[in-house]
Amino acid sequence: xxxxxxxxxxxxxxxxxxxxxxxxxxxxxxxxxxxxxxxxxxxxxxxxxxxxxxxxxxxxxxxxxxxxxxxxxxxxxxxxxxxxxxxxxxxxxxxxxxxxxxxxxxxxxxxxxxxxxxxxxxxxxxxxxxxxxxxxxxxxxxxxxxxxxxxxxxxxxxxxxxxxxxxxxxxxxxxxxxxxxxxxxxxxxxxxxxxxxxxxxxxxxxxxxxxxxxxxxxxxxxxxxxxxxxxxxxxxxxxxxxxxxxxxxxxxxxxxxxxxxxxxxxxxxxxxxxxxxxxxxxxxxxxxxxxxxxxxxxxxxxxxxxxxxxx
Length: 311
Ligand SMILES: Nc1ncnc2c1ncn2[C@@H]1O[C@H](COP(=O)(O)OP(=O)(O)OP(=O)(O)O)[C@@H](O)[C@H]1O
Ligand SMILES: [Mg+2]
Fold this sequence. Notes:
- The model is unreliable at 255-260 (pLDDT under 50).
- By secondary structure, this protein is an alpha/beta fold.
- The strands form two sheets. A nine-stranded mixed β-sheet has the order 5-4-6-7-3-8-9-10-11. Strands 1-2 form a two-stranded antiparallel ribbon.
- The protein has helices at residues 9-17, 23-27, 31-38, 42-56, 63-71, 81-86, 107-117, 142-152, 156-161, 171-188, 200-205, 212-233, 254-257; strands at 75-76, 91-92, 96-101, 130-135, 163-167, 190-196, 236-242, 268-275, 280-287, 294-301, 304-306.
- It has 13 helices and eleven strands.
- The protein is globular, with a radius of gyration of 20 Å.
- It binds adenosine-5'-triphosphate and magnesium ion.
């Protein structure tokens, strides 16, 4: 940060404590945001942001440069070939993937599985990286990781060491943790960031219609920073969102059933999960920037996420 013109170590510290600890974070920030969080003037904030953007060479790119960045998109296998093909080969880096569905639909199980799989080498469907797990519901279970490791022939203690877990206690804390993760991405080789669930605290803290606008604004800001992290650091960001399923249709309009979808404004893939019989689940790709909509059936097993037997 101190490489930027006009930023000394005192200023760098000030910016870091306001959540702008990296050039990327600063480059993507709004001047108003920097000003209000640091106490700097608007014009000084603008100047620093411009310097950060210049350092990163942000701004217009030609389509071939964008294509080159797209070519760097990597994927993490989910453990189920069906689900992977639905997602175009697995959960993508550079965007947010949202898994939403009712309780027990497998959102948390998928998150656990991805924390294991991101550690696999590329030829096995991983990214050779570390996972960061923001646990907002207290449902992270190392025992599940251990079972999944055993099934995959991985060393459980090594795998557990490569999953950084932070328990969040409210929505502000959740956002703070995400800022903190951002500062560790490169240093710790984090390639997957999970937020399970991304919406729970916001729903609880802003109940009812009167607070809906405020909830949505705050949530949008959070999703914006998640999506910025995914893009800037080229990592996969996976979020979950619990919704109440409508009992009368297999899919119907799940978004309407959710009582208003919350993740409209962030780019990414949305996957609706629904319970079938027993441990079977069906996933539906609802919104992807470029993949066709489709469905996939998978199973939740002791070993993790798998294709149904006989598939
Ligand atoms: N050890 C296991 N072996 C087999 N299946 C399991 C195991 N542990 C959990 N499951 C399956 O996972 C389901 C729970 O899924 P999960 O916790 O991912 O749901 P969720 O979508 O996160 O729900 P919520 O909205 O309540 O957080 C259980 O109902 C069960 O079917
Ligand atoms: Mg869960």
